[in-house]
Specification:
Strands 1, 2, 3, 4, 5, 6, 7 and 8 form an eight-stranded parallel beta sheet that branches. The protein has helices spanning 3-20, 23-31, 46-59, 65-74, 100-105, 134-140, 145-155, 172-178, 199-217, 233-241, 275-282, 285-301; strands at residues 36-41, 61-63, 84-91, 111-114, 183-186, 223-225, 246-252, 264-268. It has a single domain (3-121, 167-294), classed as TIM Barrel (Alpha-Beta Barrel). It is built from twelve helices and eight strands. By secondary structure, it is α/β, with parallel strands linked by helices. Helix 1 packs across helix 11 (275-282), helix 2 crosses helix 11 (275-282) and helix 9 runs parallel beside helix 10 (233-241). Helix content is 45%, strand content 13%. The chain binds zinc ion. Zinc ion binds at residues 90-91, 187, 191, 227.
Length: 302
């Protein structure tokens, strides 16, 4: 069996044990009963997403990101029902369009954060370039932005503005069809790791992505998400200066009206998660365990 499949199998077993112990139920009914869970997806299939939403509709209340942010600014949780869930997607993957009928079917309004210089083009996300290993990807997330781009150019025909034959991101027709059902917001222009950028690169990516999207779709953009969930105080200040009302991180946890709107926490969901794994991941325990395991592993690799 390939190592990747073995890891997935191990993760499924861990999720199953967590599920059998009733931890997801305990977390739902006790820890996050009066909190807001922000789910983070990337490129989930419609078949799997439909099953997840079917579960959520029965056990949670799905609200919009705007409702949560408004509650935080007004310091008023009366409009937030118990066990609230906000659904978000990062990057703007082309397959997200397939989910539109599910958003309509369940009358939910998720938020999709898109990279504004990748949508409506045939440019590829740098982390989805053919032949890039997991080890290389992790390395590239840690080095200065300029070095990351130099490295990518060396190993592939990657250029920020290189157009491939196939498309990875949503196009303008799809975005326009989704706009009445989806809150579309910026996730930078090209998905750099912001703390590895110079201050002016960082300002450019955060401000220009807002302008790009507002111009492209004739909408107002108030919400941002940090690529790879990486941010420092500098990024928070820039996001505020650029006029955003909120920013979602990938810090694992739940939100309340006391959460800083520029440090919204999330629960990342595996795009391929079956229902047991999904329920288990709603408790955040598998993600926390994986984070600990990764930290130990990378410390050893170093
Ligand atoms: Zn992203």
């Amino acid at each position: 069996m390939k190592p990747n499949r073995l890891i997935q199998l191990f993760k499924d077993v861990v999720a199953f044990v967590i599920y059998l112990l009733g931890i997801p139920w305990l977390v739902r009914e006790w820890i996050c009963k009066n909190k807001v869970t922000i789910l983070l997806y990337h490129d989930v299939s419609s078949k799997i997403f439909d099953k997840h939403i079917d579960h959520l509709i029965r056990h949670y209340n799905i609200i919009s990101l705007e409702s949560l942010v408004t509650a935080i600014y007004n310091q008023d949780s009366s409009e937030i029902p118990p066990k609230s869930v906000v659904i978000t997607f990062d990057d703007g993957h082309a397959n997200n369009f397939e989910l539109l009928s599910i958003f309509q079917k369940y009358s939910i309004r998720p938020t999709i954060y898109v990279c504004t210089q990748i949508i409506n083009t045939n440019r590829h996300f740098w982390f989805k370039i053919d032949g890039l290993s997991k080890k290389e990807k992790e390395h590239l997330k840690k080095i200065p932005n300029e070095q990351r781009i130099t490295y990518l150019k060396k190993i592939s025909n990657f250029e920020s503005f290189y157009e491939y034959n196939d498309r990875q991101a949503l196009n303008i027709d799809e975005l326009k069809q989704m706009i009445d059902y989806v809150d579309i917001q910026p996730h930078t222009q090209t998905h750099p790791i912001l703390p590895n950028c110079t201050k002016s690169e960082c300002q450019h990516e955060i401000l220009k992505s807002k302008i790009d999207l507002e111009t492209m779709l004739d909408i107002e953009c108030n919400h941002f998400s940090y690529p790879n969930g990486d941010y420092t105080e500098r990024e928070i200040e820039i996001v505020k200066e650029c006029g955003y009302r909120s920013a979602r991180t990938t810090d694992i946890g739940w939100n309340s009206i006391n959460t800083s709107p520029y440090r919204l926490k999330a629960i990342p969901i595996t795009d391929t998660a079956g229902n047991v794994r999904f329920c288990s991941e709603m408790s955040s325990i598998p993600q926390r365990l994986a984070k600990i395991a990764n930290t130990i592993l990378w410390r050893k690799v170093k």
